[in-house]
Amino acid sequence: MKHISFSVLIGALFLLASCSNGDEVDNKSFENAQLSIRLTDAPANYDEILIDIREVRVHFAGKGEEGGWQTLSGINAGVYNLLDYTNGADTLIAEHEFPAGIISQIRLLLGENNRIKKDGVYYDIMTPSAQQSGLKLKVHADLTRGVAYRLWLDFDAGRSIVEKGNGSYSLKPVIRVFTEAASGAIQGVITPVEARPYIHAVSAQKDTFSTYADGETGFFMIKALPKGSYKVEFNTTAGYQAKSIKDVEVETSRVTDMGSIVIEKIMQ
Q: Which residues form the DUF4382 domain (predicted)?
């Protein structure tokens, strides 16, 4: 049975689209928001609570009950011991990019390896509906393009495990869902589009986040920026003057619009 240890998964922190060596950010996905789904738990009177997570799906509001579901591709499937993630600890179970919109539901599909350990003895947990239709959770996560979000599934393990009269156990999950925006973004439009600069947002700590302006519209967006003040540099193609703008402020969960950025031609 595959176990996912806390020491391994805690290193898989949510990835911001950032780099210190100027790697390019793909501007084609500027319409998307980034979402990471994390697992945490409240303490419970068991030695272990092992939950086998196989698949995560999300549902977008306004898409219809059947048509609005999307399966996340970037999932860390495996068996999680919920009691590894108590008292503020958590772990990443999935991350994905989505178009901006409102996520109304999340569905967890479980595998067959769900068990508890009590007084040194393992017991299977009955989860029939979770393996067929999944654990369906109501949420209201309003995703803004260019912004990175974290969403937590907070199990109440003590209330979720039900001991039956015959000594068996079943899962009737009590899960609280909450979200937090983790970043902001910068956007603008380059004029003329022919200047097509390589654009860098440089933080006070000298971290660099980069992208190109769109070749047809001049639009650019630098996503997943930590809150702070940035110098935005525009390194242009031949024949156009480079430009920089200081003190561009980024706030969490907001997109800072720089408006139209005019790039001057070099006069011969």
A: 33-173
C-alpha 79/C-alpha 1 separation (Å) is 8
Strand order through the sheet with 91-99: 74-75, 91-99, 32-42, 148-156, 175-181
Domains in the chain: boundaries: 31-181, 184-262
Instruction: Note the pTM of the prediction, 2 decimals.
Output: 0.69
Q: What is the C-alpha separation between 229 and 235, in angstroms, rounded?
A: 19
Contact residues for 51 (Cβ-Cβ < 8 A; gap 6+): 79, 80, 82, 110, 114, 155, 171
**pLDDT confidence tier of residue 22, bands split at 50, 70 and 90:** very low
DSSP 139-150: EEEEEPTT-EEE
Superfamily of domain 184-262: Carboxypeptidase-like, regulatory domain (2.60.40.1120)
How does pLDDT run across 170-217, given as a tens digit for each residue?
A: 988 888 888 888 889 999 999 999 998 999 999 999 999 988 888 889
Q: Is the dihedral of CA 41, 44, 49, 54 positive or negative?
A: negative
Contact in structure between 146 and 33 (CB atoms under 8 Å) = yes
